[in-house]
Amino acid sequence: MLLELNIENFAIIENMKIEFETGLNVLTGETGSGKSIIIDSLGLVLGQRANKDIIKKGKDRAFIEAVFSSYDDETKKLLSEYGIDSGDLIVISKEIRDKGPSITRVNNRTVTSQILSKISTHLIDIFAQHESISLMDNKNQLRLIDDFSGKEQRDLLLKIRQIVQEINDLRSEYQEKSSLEKNKDREMDLLEYQIKEIEDAALTDYDDQELYDDFNVLNNMTDTLIKLSEAKALINDGYENVSAEDILDKIIVNIVDVTKFNKDLKATEEELEDIRYRLSDIAKELDRYINSREVDEEKLQYLRERIDLVNNLKLKYGNNVKKINSFYEEINERLVFLQNFEDNLQKLLSKIKNLEGEALKVAKKISDNRKKTAKVLEKKVEEEINKLNIKDAKFKIDLKEKDLSSDGIDKIEFLIAPNLGQDLMPLAKVASGGEMSRIMLGFKSIIAEKDNIPTLVFDEIDTGISGKTAQIVGNKIKEVAKKRQVIVISHLPQIVALADTHFAIKKDVVNNSTISTIDKLDYEERVQEVARLIGGMNISEVAIETAKEMIGD
């Protein structure tokens, strides 16, 4: 159940902490005091989209935190799937920043809105004023039937959505490929040309880099041989100039003369002699290289033409050999497909037909479940709305067959005859606002028995009712609250008087700023608040006595 709701800098709420109790929790207050803001904040922390405009003026962030306890094993399993620690409590928080994105956390782990929605549906169900309108929508009616049908129905719906998605993808593929008929021959000619061009080139990994390296070596061979010949001449050819070897020989002779008397330079002498031999080896290596190389014009021309060919292919089909080969595989597959064009289209049609048959079988199972559920719900809803003072009302769920889609083959319409003698008509055309609220309450009380959600929230479900009907609705809410926590925003004394815990919301002006506050009322304060709801601002003794009688001991 919901233990705490903490709200900071949200609309006209500066800092509010509400500690809810088991049973029936009722919130009252003047119009505009902030009652609905509390429900809005709860909706936001549970996954609704946040608007930065709700941040209190002059603040840079709003913060909402909801603390839950008493959740089941299924919820624990769901938390574990998302890597969220589960202990005795589930703490959900949302921080809405003026600058930057909103951040939602569950037990200190940041989560997405999608994950949060999956978790929160196991913890709480909020009925706001607009939900009675949503009950008029045929899609929502269908969803409600499916929710009541249980896990098997949810699994079947997931399966049919997957199959229908696959059918739609295959149909799109069929349409796309069918449109190729008129251009098929032209495309095949192009593909055959491209395949032959790539095959004739016989590309290898060599063509990516080594080809260019070999060309650069051969293309620069004349300059290379000139430079290497000059280098060799400087080492050991001394016809016109003194060579490096001659210079080293003279150095060594001088050092040898010195080492006769100074043994400390013996190591230097040996190093110089080693350099002399190494330099001689280098000269021989350069000589071998020079004599073994020549400018091969024929090979140079081949490399030049090969580079032109490879560059042309890279420009057309990919900037390296791997990508060209990948492209080659794709166009080969494409050519094979076009060569077997009619057969492939027939295979697609056959696959679509088989999937449609499979989807239809699943859809019929879904439809059978809906029909069974509809019969149960018709009876239960009729009983509930009769109890809620829509006497002699008749309720029927009309199922008609439609074309196969992702939700099956059923079109659903909720029909009602609110008064004796009236014909059954669509809910949207017959029911008044007060009747819609009671019908929704009837649905909620029925579903609450099945879904095991520990907390129900009703935001002004008493709209459009009064007197005896208000008392009946109040008793129904009280009955539901015996099995789970119920939070209600109400302005009717008949409902407010039944509260196990009563909160009063008011707004004050502090430092030229409107601030909403909340108090948990004791018995005397509850009497005063119920009396206010009975008689308005001028509370009479009669109103107080009536309030005491309604609240009881």
Automatic annotation (TrEMBL):
Coiled-coil segments on the chain, per record: 153-201, 258-285, 338-391
Residue intervals of the RecF/RecN/SMC N-terminal domain: 2-507
Keyword terms, alphabetized: ATP-binding, Coiled coil, DNA damage, DNA repair, Nucleotide-binding
Gene Ontology BP terms: DNA recombination; DNA repair; SOS response
GO MF terms held by the record: ATP binding
GO CC terms: bacterial nucleoid
InterPro entries: DNA_recomb/repair_RecN, P-loop_NTPase, RecF/RecN/SMC_N
Pfam families in alphabetical order: SMC_N
Keyword Coiled coil tagged: yes
Function: May be involved in recombinational repair of damaged DNA.
Family statement: Belongs to the RecN family.
Protein name from the UniProt record: DNA repair protein RecN
UniProt lineage: Bacteria, Bacillati, Bacillota, Tissierellia, Tissierellales
